[in-house]
Amino acid sequence: MENTSSKIFGIRAIIEAINSGATIQKIYLQKDLKGNLFSELSSLIKENNISTSFVPVEKLNHLSKNNNHQGVAATISPIDFYDLETLVNEVLESNTTPLFLLLDQITDVRNFGAIIRTAECTGVNGIVIQNQGSAPLNADAIKTSAGAAFKVPICRVNHLKDAMFLLQASDIKMVAATEKTNDTLYDVNFNQPTAIIMGSEHRGVNPSILKMVDAKAKLPLLGEIESLNVSVACGAFLYEAIRQRM
Fold first, then answer.
1. To 10 degrees, what angle do helices 109-121 and 230-245 make?
2. Is 3.40.190.10 the CATH classification of the domain at 84-245?
3. What is the pLDDT of residues 23-56, one digit of tens each?
4. What is the pLDDT of residue 4?
5. Which helix H or strand E contains 66, and what residues bound it?
6. 3-state SS assignment for residue 143
7. Strands 24-30 and 154-157
8. How many angstroms from the chain centroid is the CA of residue 74?
9. pTM of the model
10. Sign of the torsion formed by the C-alpha atoms of 157, 236, 179 and 141
């Protein structure tokens, strides 16, 4: 469960939170809300590309523990997200070989937390997620990360492709973890600046993302099961990168 301290309720309160620069993780809206104040909130949601979900009033009652929510509830991220361009510049100036991790709509919070933990342990310079369609960085994810969520920089972007363009412009190679290739991760040179892209639990890396990558790689699977859990696969990729760099 998310911490109650990470939730706020009421249209005006959420408008003020957005205007104050709070990192809004997701907004839950009751269907068929109307009025000038709601119109103002809707405009801010669009301007800031905040993830939203229309839910029945029972969901809002549960989130607010039956407090006066006015048909709106929001969760605030317990951590501050990094600006990707600023982070990339800092990493490039540090004279280390960049290693980034891009998550293409990982939806399970425990997978997300486990990936963050492994990323911290392997010295990943930054994790990139999308505003929409990604698992929330809530109490469950932070607990699963064993606190690593407070140590490894995490960036949110509107579209993963924008992050890829930025990283490729900085000569950082895009490597997608996908079974749609004949190459294994052992064929990839991780000694150069690299960003590893991990796909969602159900569909893998989006086909439109695969068209943009510099390399594709898969894990060799010798058993009858066709895939690994994404957090386990991510660990294998990251530790192969570390093995090559040591």
1. 10
2. no
3. 788 899 998 888 888 899 999 999 988 888 899 8
4. 36
5. none
6. helix
7. unpaired
8. 18
9. 0.80
10. negative
Structural tokens at position 26: 């997701």
Q: What's the confidence (pLDDT) of residue 91? A: 96
- Please report the pLDDT score of residue 191 as a whole number: 96
How many CB atoms lie under 10 A from the CB of residue 130?
21
Q: Are 193 and 125 in contact (CB under 8 A)?
A: no
pLDDT, position 123: 96
For CA atoms 20, 82, 133, 114, the dihedral sign is: negative
Spell 194-205 as b/e; 16+ CB within 10 A means b. Answer: bbbbbbbbeebb
What distance in Å separates the CA atoms of residue 125 and residue 86, rounded to the nearest whole number?
A: 12
Answer yes or no: CATH 3.30.1330.30 is held by domain 4-76. yes
3-state secondary structure at position 231? helix
Whole-number pLDDT of residue 210: 95
What stretches in the chain show pLDDT beneath 50?
A: 1-5
Instruction: For the chain, give every domain's residue range.
Output: 4-76, 84-245
* Gap between the Cα atoms of 151 and 243, Å rounded: 22
